[in-house]
Each structure stands twice: as structure tokens, then as C-alpha cells.
């Protein structure tokens, strides 16, 4: 499987796109810029393939926009409060790129660099990247890998791995935006979602940084323990939703024990497409695309806010600074492992 040119970066570097397929006709396109998922084609109820992730037609459009469509996020996914971390007793100041906080590791995050292809097969590809000491203001030379596999049961598996020569932070995710009616189908609020989480981490006003507390979802709009439309409660008078313009919250997964567990289910009554999310992570971020904004996507499609949702598996936001949260700190001699699977079916 050879790649095809997918434009050039602003710096003049060639970007290459690769196509993964299984025996059922499911197709996933990924590119080496940001190790990014460009498209995910899965069959709907009628057997017609629909591309269920938002994206762009050229690599430069990915550079020009700030939504992180389909990209690998690291070294640290989500937010770090005050853009500061303390590792081995030393404080490191990170880039402040989100209300005085650090979001998705700043301008030199994994989403913005070209990854190397380690190995490729028809249904699998592994990318690697050497993140140099202090490249993102985090210490240590880190070698990171991400492997995408399209399985014959119509799942997209994402496996991450990393080692570092200094104590650092390792908390990777993928920022795919899903619309189970197709990327070009408009608002997704009628699509249904279940999250297997009895608790979530509330955030502070204006910052989206967790307070450090863990609160029950019961009796609040944050309760997705039973399948419901994503838009059912998104506009209700609830402080947490007002703080971030809708859902942009981390959920504490009930069965997180370090093994692969069912974390969430989503489905569209219109297309019949269902997506089950399995992960070995402790948390999952539901982002309802509140700030996508008006823009042009693949094939000239019109995108806007709430046209897709993200289910980002992760350590909790700001976990490196919260002693009550499971730590994303990676020590010398350790290997960071994480896996998430997005499993597609029809109903």
C-alpha cells in the first residue's frame, strides 16, 4: 500500500495520505501530518458507504483551522491549568493558548508535525515521531507511536505507545469529529448517545479546567447512562453547560480498570449507523462541537457548530496538577500504552 500526495505544508513539506481497508469495504484514510484521520467510510442501513468524520480536502486547510479534526493530540490531550506542570520537583511553563491555560500541548503539538511511517499493510499503519526535549516545553526526548488498524468486524483501532528519557507527561487521544449521518449532513443533535459513566469532572467558569471534584451525573443534563439525543438537554439552564457553551466535559468511566471496556455507544436513527467506543482509559471527553463555526469542509460541505461530536478517551483534564486524579506522568524506563476502538455496525 503506497500513499498518495495530499498537498504540502506551509513550510513546503509534502504530506502523504494512506488508505486502510478491510474485507467488508470499510475504508479509513489517514495522513502523516498529525497522524490524522481524514475519512472513515462505513456502510449505512442501505449498504451505502458514508464518511462519518469531518475533515478537509487539503493538508493546508488542516493547518489553517483550529478544530484539530481527526488529529492525534499529545503529549498532553485536553487542558493543563495555568499552563504549568511540576515534574521531578521542577516547574515547567507551557504555552498559554487557551484562556491562560495549555490546550492540546500548544502550537508544537502532535497534530502539527509530520509523522514517519514505521510499517504499513492493507489494513494497518504505524506512525512514529520523536518529540524532542522541550519541543512542547515538556521535558525529555519522547519517541511516540500510533497504530491504526481497520478490523474485519468494522472497527477502527487506535493504539498509542511512548517512551521518554526524562520524566514527562503522556496523555494521547484522537480528536475525530463524528456525525453518523455523514460529515456533510448538518446538525447532529438528534443522534443518540450513551456514556457508561456515573460521574463527571465539573469545570470552572470560563476556563474549562476541572475544579478537582468528581460529581454525580444523576439528576443533571450530564446523565448519559441511558441512550438519549445529544441535543435533548444541551440548552437547559444548567451552570456547567453555560460555562462552555454546551457539552465539553470529561466523564469518569465506571469500569475503567486498565483493560479494554465499553465506554460509550452512539447511534443514528436516520442512517442506522451505530458506533461503540471501547478504551482502556479512565476518562472520555464529550465535546458537542460547540465552536466549530461556519466553515467549508470536504467536498465543499458546509460545517457549523454542533455538526459533529467528539468522544476523546484520555486521562482527566489537568490530571498532572490534581493529586486526586490518576496521573499521566511517564517515568524513565516505563512505556506508555493506550488503546481505543471505534466499532461500527448498523441497526
Number of domains: 1
**Lateral strand order in the biggest sheet:** 11-12-13-14-29-23-22-17-20
State the share of residues found in helices, binned by percent. Answer: under 10%
Q: What class, by secondary structure content?
A: mainly beta
**Overall geometric form:** globular
Quick one: CATH class?
A: Mainly Beta
Uncertain runs:
none
Number of helices: 2
State the oligomer. single chain
Reported by name, the CATH topology is: Beta-galactosidase, Chain A, domain 5
Average pLDDT works out at 97
In this structure, how is the largest beta sheet organized?
A: 9 strands, antiparallel
E-strand count: 29
Explain this structure:
The protein has about 350 residues and is mainly beta. It has one domain: Beta-galactosidase, Chain A, domain 5. It has two helices and 29 strands. The protein has helices at about 60-65, 240-245, and strands at about 5-10, 15-20, 25-30, 35-45, 50, 70-75, 80, 85, 90-95, 100-105, 115-120, 125-130, 140-150, 155-165, 170, 175, 190-195, 200, 215, 230, 250, 260-265, 275-280, 285, 295, 300-305, 310-315, 330, 335-345. The strands form eight sheets. It has a nine-stranded antiparallel β-sheet, with no helix packed on it. A hairpin with a 5-residue loop joins strand 2 and strand 3. The protein is globular, with a radius of gyration of 19 Å. This is Aldose 1-epimerase. Its EC number is 5.1.3.3. Belongs to the aldose epimerase family.
Amino acid at each position: 500500500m503506497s500513499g498518495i500526495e495530499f498537498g504540502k505544508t506551509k513550510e513546503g513539506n509534502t504530506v502523504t495520505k494512506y488508505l486502510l481497508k478491510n474485507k467488508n469495504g470499510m475504508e479509513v484514510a489517514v495522513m502523516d501530518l498529525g497522524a490524522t484521520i481524514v475519512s472513515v467510510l462505513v456502510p449505512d442501513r442501505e449498504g451505502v458507504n458514508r464518511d462519518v468524520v469531518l475533515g478537509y480536502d487539503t493538508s493546508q486547510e488542516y493547518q489553517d483551522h483550529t478544530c484539530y479534526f481527526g488529529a492525534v493530540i499529545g503529549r498532553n490531550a485536553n487542558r493543563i491549568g495555568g499552563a504549568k506542570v511540576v515534574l521531578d520537583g521542577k516547574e515547567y511553563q507551557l504555552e498559554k493558548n487557551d484562556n491562560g491555560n495549555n490546550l492540546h500541548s500548544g502550537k508544537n503539538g502532535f497534530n502539527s508535525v509530520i509523522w514517519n511511517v514505521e510499517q504499513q499493510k492493507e489494513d494497518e499503519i504505524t506512525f512514529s515521531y520523536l518529540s524532542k526535549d522541550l519541543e512542547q516545553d515538556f521535558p525529555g526526548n519522547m519517541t511516540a507511536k500510533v497504530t491504526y488498524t481497520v478490523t474485519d468486524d468494522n472497527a477502527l483501532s487506535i493504539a498509542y505507545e511512548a517512551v521518554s528519557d526524562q520524566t514527562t507527561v503522556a496523555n494521547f487521544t484522537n480528536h475525530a469529529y463524528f456525525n453518523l449521518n455523514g460529515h456533510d449532513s448538518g446538525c447532529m443533535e438528534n443522534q443518540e448517545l450513551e456514556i457508561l459513566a456515573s460521574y463527571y469532572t465539573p469545570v470552572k467558569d470560563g476556563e474549562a479546567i476541572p475544579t478537582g471534584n468528581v460529581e454525580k451525573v444523576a439528576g443533571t443534563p450530564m446523565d448519559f447512562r441511558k441512550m438519549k439525543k445529544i441535543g435533548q438537554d444541551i440548552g437547559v439552564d444548567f451552570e456547567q453547560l453555560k460555562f462552555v457553551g454546551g457539552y465539553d466535559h470529561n466523564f469518569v468511566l465506571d469500569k475503567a480498570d486498565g483493560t479494554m471496556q465499553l465506554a460509550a455507544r452512539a447511534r443514528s436513527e436516520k442512517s442506522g449507523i451505530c458506533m461503540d467506543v471501547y478504551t482502556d482509559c479512565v476518562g472520555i471527553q464529550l465535546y458537542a462541537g460547540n465552536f466549530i463555526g461556519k466553515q467549508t469542509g470536504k467536498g465543499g460541505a458546509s460545517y457549523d457548530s454542533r455538526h459533529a461530536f467528539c468522544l476523546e478517551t484520555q486521562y482527566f483534564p489537568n490530571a498532572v496538577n490534581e493529586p486526586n486524579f490518576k496521573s499521566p506522568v511517564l517515568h524513565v524506563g516505563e512505556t506508555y500504552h493506550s488503546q481505543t476502538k471505534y466499532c461500527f455496525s448498523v441497526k
